[in-house]
Amino acid sequence: MAGLLGTSSTVRFFASKPFSSQSHYSKSSSFSLCPSPGISLGRNSVGGTEFKKERSKFHVLVSNVATEINPAEEQAQKLASKESQRPVYPFAAIVGQDEMKLCLLLNVIDPKIGGVMIMGDRGTGKSTAVRSLVDLLPEIKVVAGDAFNSDPDDPEVQGMEVREKLMKGEELPVMSTKINMVDLPLGATEDRVCGTIDIEKALTEGVKAFEPGLLAKANRGILYVDEVNLLDDHLVDVLLDSAASGWNTVEREGISISHPARFILIGSGNPEEGELRPQLLDRFGMHAQVGTVKDAELRVKIVEERARFDGNPKEFRESYEAEQEKLQKQIYSARSSLSAVTIDHDLRVKISKVCAELNVDGLRGDIVTNRAARALAALKGRDKVNTEDISIVIPNCLRHRLRKDPLESIDSGLLVIEKFYEVFA
């Protein structure tokens, strides 16, 4: 087999046939209804088939069709796609905004931190920083041809078809690919986000085909929502459901599809444009506040760097290539050594004491602070968390979890810092 580019899985309904699947991989799952003894079919609806079952039971047979491509052609397509992409501002070239950059890096090192919410003034480089992260994202192993970026070694982030093949002992083709970043537009429909049924195939071929949405594409990757505080409520509900369970379930036209949807949720917004719903805010592992740079020299440097990038993006990116590669190596090393980083029991107790005395609801604050401190220690090349690591990350982990007091004028991050020094002193 030269390689697999795109396939489809067709589910047929037969009478008294056991479930089976063949060894290929699909980007869409197609469902067709075929006549069999004991089933009467009627064409009473447009784009669909109405059926009724008599005495026999339905069993599902999954058949797949793979298309072969030349690996050289596939590589050429990747290079052409890379060249056609618009140039991205280098992450290493961003001046200032250290808090925001650190939160983003820690989430790349440990995706289980749960994402980051970036709030700040207009024109402070929030979306630029997030999108520049693409160049630093490491590679991960995925099952070739799978629409959900299934991990060949972790059942928690595998699609149902991949799981079934593994249970049967079939060998899965594995490939390496960069972590994906998916933009969720404010005007996106629920069908585009969750996935939907391909009506065109239903009308032309009589086949019900599932088209994966943005949540499927973002599995094991990053889902970025710019101006997240302006997102429609129905999309917020979808994100909450997926973020809570790690799975996305689509119920359409009598078909139920579930697939893994574990992603790093990154949002950005301007607080002047409205508050975020507390349920969604709590789903973000960390919260970074971005302010406008006040130092005149730094402002001039930012303007000059931006002018250089706009004038010649390729040359500008090449000038930061060495720094970008250094950051990439740091991230790779930190991800590799993360599991070996430890945190003393007394430090864990003090973290939980800070959370308790600040009246933080739930235990997410405790968990995220421990994870972020370990990720920071790994980024610094150490195998043990110290007090300084905790002091750096704890405001970002707890700031957005404090109960709002309308009469309180002090910033919530400062409250966290005060309580930290009180407990850790």
TrEMBL record:
<comment type="subunit">
    <text>The magnesium chelatase complex is a heterotrimer consisting of subunits CHLI, CHLD, AND CHLH.</text>
</comment>
<dbReference type="GO" id="GO:0010007">
    <property type="term" value="C:magnesium chelatase complex"/>
</dbReference>
<dbReference type="InterPro" id="IPR027417">
    <property type="entry name" value="P-loop_NTPase"/>
</dbReference>
<dbReference type="InterPro" id="IPR003593">
    <property type="entry name" value="AAA+_ATPase"/>
</dbReference>
<dbReference type="GO" id="GO:0016887">
    <property type="term" value="F:ATP hydrolysis activity"/>
</dbReference>
<comment type="similarity">
    <text>Belongs to the Mg-chelatase subunits D/I family.</text>
</comment>
<dbReference type="Pfam" id="PF01078">
    <property type="entry name" value="Mg_chelatase"/>
</dbReference>
<keyword id="KW-0436">Ligase</keyword>
<dbReference type="GO" id="GO:0015995">
    <property type="term" value="P:chlorophyll biosynthetic process"/>
</dbReference>
<dbReference type="InterPro" id="IPR000523">
    <property type="entry name" value="Mg_chelatse_chII-like_cat_dom"/>
</dbReference>
<keyword id="KW-0149">Chlorophyll biosynthesis</keyword>
<dbReference type="InterPro" id="IPR045006">
    <property type="entry name" value="CHLI-like"/>
</dbReference>
<dbReference type="GO" id="GO:0015979">
    <property type="term" value="P:photosynthesis"/>
</dbReference>
<dbReference type="GO" id="GO:0016851">
    <property type="term" value="F:magnesium chelatase activity"/>
</dbReference>
<comment type="subunit">
    <text>The magnesium chelatase complex is a heterotrimer consisting of subunits CHLI, CHLD and CHLH.</text>
</comment>
<comment type="function">
    <text>Involved in chlorophyll biosynthesis. Catalyzes the insertion of magnesium ion into protoporphyrin IX to yield Mg-protoporphyrin IX.</text>
</comment>
<keyword id="KW-0150">Chloroplast</keyword>
<keyword id="KW-0067">ATP-binding</keyword>
<protein>
    <recommendedName>
        <fullName>Mg-protoporphyrin IX chelatase</fullName>
        <ecNumber>6.6.1.1</ecNumber>
    </recommendedName>
</protein>
<dbReference type="GO" id="GO:0005524">
    <property type="term" value="F:ATP binding"/>
</dbReference>
<dbReference type="InterPro" id="IPR011775">
    <property type="entry name" value="Mg_chelatase_ATPase-isu"/>
</dbReference>
<keyword id="KW-0547">Nucleotide-binding</keyword>
<keyword id="KW-0602">Photosynthesis</keyword>
<comment type="pathway">
    <text>Porphyrin-containing compound metabolism; chlorophyll biosynthesis.</text>
</comment>
<dbReference type="GO" id="GO:0009570">
    <property type="term" value="C:chloroplast stroma"/>
</dbReference>
<keyword id="KW-0934">Plastid</keyword>
<feature type="domain" description="AAA+ ATPase">
    <location>
        <begin position="112"/>
        <end position="294"/>
    </location>
</feature>
<dbReference type="Pfam" id="PF17863">
    <property type="entry name" value="AAA_lid_2"/>
</dbReference>
<dbReference type="InterPro" id="IPR041628">
    <property type="entry name" value="ChlI/MoxR_AAA_lid"/>
</dbReference>
